[in-house]
Amino acid sequence: MNIGQAAKASGLPAKTIRYYEDIGLIAPKRDSNGYRSFREGEIHRLAFLNRARGLGFSIEDCRALLGLYDDASRASEDVRRLAAEHLDRIDARIAELQEMRATVAGLVDSCAGDGRPDCPILDDLATGPLSRHATRSRR
After folding, report:
1. What is the rounded CA–CA span in Å between residue 107 and residue 54?
2. Which of 11, 61, 113, 114 is deepest in the core (most CB within 10 A)?
3. pLDDT tier at 131 (50, 70, 90 boundaries)?
4. Domain 1-58: assigned CATH number
5. 21 contacts 10 by C-beta, under 8 angstroms
């Protein structure tokens, strides 16, 4: 199977497949002409990566998950620990987003939204405290 077919079968763009190969997550065979050749096992790994990335696992998490998947003597507690750590990161991000939403909702509520030029939203953005969200995005 060539990269286009592998992309279609796994649901990943060819560019992502090339990237996963470059960083060592997959290692498709090469034909004598140098083209990548994907077998069923590689397609399964690509689909695995697609699902894991879709659930927000980092590349390094995916590397660890694939290692665990390939290890028949793995302990399920290792897989659970990795997933639980990811769940903690998701919960922290949800809390940040809820805090951000509450702030923006308060700003929207404070604005009359009429024809006057006064706007508490702009005033707050111009003079309000820098949050950790703003400083993180500027790094």
Report:
1. 32
2. 61
3. low
4. 1.10.1660.10
5. no
